[in-house]
Structures are given as C-alpha cells and as structure tokens.
Write a structure and sequence with these properties.
Blueprint lengths: L1 H17 L6 H37 L48 E7 L4 E3 L4 E10 L9 E8 L7 E4 L8 E9 L5 E9 L5 E8 L1
Parallel strand pairs: 2-8
Antiparallel strand pairs: 1-3, 3-6, 4-5, 4-7, 7-8
Helix pairs in contact: 1-2
C-alpha cells in the first residue's frame, strides 16, 4: 500500500511539472491539492474494497459452528407397593390316621384249581383222559356237606353232569374232584365249564384236540 502511495505522489508532481508555466503558483498548488485529495480518496476506496474482500474470504473459509444443547434424561426409581400377602405359615399338624381296612372276603366263596389236564394240553381225538380239580373254600363261613358241582356249558366231555362234595369245608380247606372224560372227535380247542352250587365259583377244562 505505501509503495502505491509514493507512485501516486510522483505522478502528481509529474503532472504539475507538465502544466503551463504561465499559471499562477496558487493555481498550481490548488491543482496539486486536488490531485492529492483524489489520490487519497482512491486509496481509501481501494483499502475498503480490499478489506471487504478479505472479510468475505474469511467468512467463506470459516464454517459457521452451530451448537445445540442436548438434555440427557434422568431416571428416578419408582417404588411399586402391592398388597401381596405373606406366604402362609405351615404348622406340623399330624395327618389323620387312615380308616381301618374293610374286609373284602365274602361269607361264601371259592376257587377251583385245574390240576389236570393243563391249559391247552394236546389230547388225541376220541381218547380218554382224567380231570382233576381242587375246590377251596375262600369264604369266611364253613360249608356244610353235600355242596354240588354241576356241568354249566361248553363241550360236554364227561358222562356225569353233577358231583357232590360229601364233606363240610372250613374256610381255607380244599376238596379234590376226579372225573373220567373223553376228548371229542373234532379237532381244535375245546372248553367245558362247571359251576359250584350257589354260583360261588367256576371250574374249567380247556384242551387242544388233535
């Protein structure tokens, strides 16, 4: 900037030297002052323009920083009160004793075991064989003598249809019955059923005729 000012002053003096010699010194001084004033004004305008240019460049180069305030939420514990009852207090109350066992035995009952033939035993068709039963008194009362065991159904394999137990039986006692039998002529599984008087129990024979 100083260098430009000196150049302008030199130009002013050069102009003054070129003015006609017949002009009065006062006129010359007035023209010089005018030239100097114009030169200074021009310098001021140039300096102001340069300042505005620099400010514009600085504004463009410097980004605007924007600050935002972010509030972080705060959490406060919430106390929830419920009407939850306390667990019950257990006491050592003894359980009541079980009821006495009731007897399932009947006054009159029995069970017949087939001693022979065995279940599904193979016997030749139209051949003789022996049946043996054991009748047991499983009731709570004694039997009188003369209880009958009778044919009830199935393939009849004996000539007799009734057998009498000639003796009395106390609870738990047994009596054996023997019968002569004959296998039928047809082949296959054959069954015969007898019943103890009073429908107390049943006696069976199951064979395979071949």
């Amino acid at each position: 900037m100083i260098k430009k000012t000196m150049i302008l002053i030199a130009l002013v003096f050069l102009v003054a030297a070129c003015l006609p010699a017949q002009q009065a010194p006062a006129d010359v001084q007035s023209q010089v002052n005018t030239a100097v004033a114009q030169t200074l004004e021009a310098n001021n305008l140039m300096a102001e323009a340069a300042t505005q240019t620099m400010n514009a460049q600085v504004s463009a180069a410097s980004p605007t920083l924007a600050f935002t305030l972010t509030l972080e939420p705060t959490f406060e514990p919430i106390l929830i009160i419920t009407d939850t009852p306390l667990p019950p207090t257990f006491t050592s109350t003894p359980f009541p004793p079980p009821p006495p066992a009731q007897s399932t035995s009947k006054p009159y009952s029995c069970f017949v075991s087939t001693l022979s033939p065995s279940l599904y035993e193979e016997i030749k068709a139209d051949s003789n064989f022996e049946i043996k039963w054991s009748v047991k008194n499983t009731g709570t009362r004694a039997w009188d003598s003369g209880v009958d065991v009778k044919y009830a159904g199935g393939v009849q394999m004996t000539n007799a249809t009734r057998v009498e137990i000639p003796v009395g039986l106390q609870p738990g006692q047994s009596y054996k019955i023997s019968l002569n039998a004959k296998a039928p002529k047809g082949t296959g599984v054959r069954q015969m059923t007898w019943i103890v008087e009073g429908q107390m129990c049943y006696a069976q024979v199951v064979i395979t005729v071949k």
